[in-house]
User: Fold this.
Amino acid sequence: MDKKLIVLGIESSCDDTSAAILKGSNVLSNIISSQDIHKQYGGVVPELASRAHQQNIIPVVDTAIKSAKINRSDIDFIAYTKGPGLLGSLLVGSSFAKSFSYSLRRPLVSVNHMKAHILAHFIEDEKNSSPDFPFICLTVSGGHTQIVLVNSFTEMKIIGTTLDDAAGEAFDKSAKVLGLDYPGGPLIDKFSKSGNINAFTFGKPKIKELDFSFSGLKTSIMNKINSSLMTNSKFIDENLNDLCASIQHSIIRILLDKVEKAIIKTKVKSVAIAGGVSANSYLRSELVLLSKKLNLNVHIPKFEYCTDNAAMIAMAGAIKYKYGKINSDDYSEQASARLSF
Assistant:
């Protein structure tokens, strides 16, 4: 990657407004403004998210540029999230990116959010090496669960995906039933550390090949909790740690059982994780155990590159720019909530 290329990345696919400056593959700044307002609703409210992005986008970009100790004129091009995500949120980021690009007379690069999660592994990092091609990447978040065969920077193929709900949603909905705040995934991870993973068992989906399903598991969890509350009103309080540990174990086992099948099927010897759920400590530790079992090279992202962030958008944009897969003069390109992979 050309070390002289300086990229401004802009991410606004959901409820985090983020801007980053990348020089080559080195992050100079990565600023994220989160929206706490959604906690009181137990999930992201799209209209509120887009309004908050409008308030945050200018100060976040300004802070990213100042933190990187560069001038606007130093930016070589701008990368932004085209999709998938919440349309209103995407429109705020894409509109700003287009305007900023036009004012600076700099090229504009649109980025697929899910591919960017995978390409975050190529951000320069002294402690972690980038994966060699080909590799399997398990991409898990609140909206997506995918197993991707990554053959090169530009050749990626989804070989497994969820047929209904995403793993991150299963975490958050389970946490809501337990009375935990949003986002619930990190809280389940926290409480599970003192719990017994075998205390409770839940229904396990029987999905063929490499695809996932989490709707049945969610129903099984809710039925178990609700039926237990009918006989013991303090059931959750008395069993919170064990419930969190058992729920987390069930979700992670579903994910890693499919990853193991994908490794055996493709005979690929490197595996990576990406997306918000890749910050989960149990997923990380169990993936390391799987890598030892199958003699794999394992790649786990730094925590700051797990959740939505603009550094990964800038990295994906830099790679797309390098391989010439852009139309930098097309300002009519539209944000897409359901952008295909």
The CA atoms of residues 39 and 181 lie 6 Å apart.
